[in-house]
Amino acid sequence: MRENLQKFFVCMSLLLAVFCMPLSGDGVQSGKNIYAALKNAGFSPEFQGLSPTDAALFPQNITVRIPGTEERARTLVFAFTQEFAEADIDAIIRFLHAVESEHVSFPVLVLLSANNSTAGLPADSMHIHPSGTETFSQAEAAENTCAIVIEEALPGSPEGTHPLIPGGGKDVSPLWLVQAMQSAAEAGGHKAVIPKTVAFLYRLGLSDEKARVSAFLAQEIPAAGILLGHTEQDFGILLRTARVLDQMRGAAVWDRHYSHISVPLLGYEFWVNEAFFATCYLLFAAAVLFMLCFLSFRDSTRNKAILADLARTWYLIPLLIAATTAALTVSQRFLLRVPQLAADPVLLLGAKLLAIFTLSLLLFILEVRFNFKVSFHAAGYCLLFVAAANIFVFCSIDLTLLFIFVLEYAACLLAQRAKRMSTVMFTLALLFIPFIAPAANIVLSTNRQSLHDFAACTVAGNALAACMLYPLQMQWKRLLIISDIFDPSRPFASRRKLLHGISFILLSLAALIALYLAASGFIALTGLSAGKFLPQGRFILQKAAAAVGKVLPGDEGGQDADSGGTVIQAAEPLRTAVTVSSEPFSELLIRRISIRCPESSAVQRLEVSVENPGGVPLYDCNYDYRFGGKDRIFFCLPDKPAGQVDIVYSCGRDAASIVTVRAWYAEEGGTLSEETQSVAVRQDEGS
After folding, report:
1. Hey, which of 170, 434, 500, 680 has its CA 20 to 30 A from 62?
2. pLDDT one-digit tens code per residue, 551-569
3. Is residue 156 part of a domain?
4. What phi and psi, each to the nearest 5 degrees, are found at residue 139?
5. Are residues 330 and 431 in the same domain?
6. What is the pTM of this model?
7. In terms of Cα–Cα distance, which of 633, 638, 671 is closest to 651?
8. Residue 349: closest CA among 263, 272, 462
9. Those residues with Cβ within 8 angstroms of residue 667's Cβ, 6 or more apart along the chain or in another chain
10. What is the spatial distance between Cα 578 and Cα 465, in angstroms, rounded to a whole number?
11. Rg of the chain's alpha carbons, rounded to an integer?
């Protein structure tokens, strides 16, 4: 009896130790704490490694699967992060029990992904540091899974308001999933905030994407995100979403071309789906073709005169588009050399637009100077023709752009009929209106890097911009024609006065740009940058050692007994211990890179590369790797390793390699320190 009581108290002590265990660790230990808490709550969690080698050395995903009442093909994934779970593990456990009690027909999988917080670390453009969500999405079958990604709401966010994330990875979430989440939020008295022009921003890669939603959509897994807190009401949105999806039972429409339109004055909002866009596209296409091909070619004296002018000037349409494309591309190369323009994409777009209108003015002067046929009515027909063509060109890129270019075509219809100076100027301004709302959404809803890529686009992007700007250029040309500024029959003094007026307008715009550049330069020189007044991120990167040297003839450097090679970088004492050893194997060498970090230091990331100038870096390896050039590879290592990392690879005996290791450590005060060291391994080493 006494022995049984002792066993009972020992078991209770262990259980209390688990439940009272603080969930504030980092990396591997945090995952173990969460796993233990879920296990003791009666669930069957499973680990999923982020690396095929030494999976337990790195943080791992944790999944909990709840079976459905029926055998359904599609599994619903609720994707949380382990940081979200650490903040309130009890809320996650209550949510899991609530999902069990719902008895939905499809399986539900709750994912607690690891290594999703990369604040302060360099961007992983080569994808050599796999995250938990990325690893999970690559392992799941797209046809059997849909996901709801939960992002933690920022402190101070309005209660009851939850922004949705309906896209990422240059793709859009299906309409049925977004509508299910919206209806679930509204059923609980909450408001789901949906971005405007959804498909336009996400499909063109112009939206500020979330990496976790993008990871699912990149694998063609239907997914959408929502910002939530840890309250019961927030988790209730997820439960109601599961109920709505259960009621659909496969009757959902896979619609990825849609928009959400709201009318604030009327308090009304509605969805415009793909079928509506397609129907309107066909109707507008038929109407445009009828007006363009039939009404414009009626046997009338006016149309005959216009056709005669077009027969003499039709080649100016592709010529002007080609010239505009070349001007945009060339001016872009020169404008990007100005630091202020390269750093401000909005100003870069304005400078390119100013360059195009200046080009149109110069081309018109050349046409008049060399006695080219200039026709006011033919220019109006050209702008209408290209505006009609733009509908088909841009709708082939994205169907949701239909109404933008239909409005442009309607404005061109009015512009073509304008014959007075005042009406021509008014319709020129009218042509800008269809692009105001999309431009505002792009500027306000796009991250700075995407906006810069949009402004400094490729030649193909500049060609599309030239097609879009052509109606504006034609109306600008018609304004110059009707003003008779460069008419040779006008007195020289009068023409010079009008020319001075246009020059004053162009110089005023240039002066505004110069003033902005001067102000930006003054702010930069005096150190009054905006970054000093903005709150810093969680981590501030501090470099402890950086430069990589070269082994010169006769300069052997310091021989490190532990490294088995030559240390070619002199630096302060580093915490990261790197050793490289080699062993012969047949005609090859087996090399081992061992990286040891102090247990007292919280290492956040290791970046390890091997470079063999002029040769093949390796043949096989125990870790995955990516090529960073023809003679350099980077090993795929998850963040936050919890022990010694051993990389073993085979290479040729003549491989003279340079092993470079970069390590980032978390310091006190929320900062990061970076250490870099390189080891040169000679050709004959180990042979």
Report:
1. 170
2. 323 333 333 333 333 333 3
3. yes
4. -90, -15
5. yes
6. 0.73
7. 633
8. 462
9. 542, 673
10. 52
11. 32
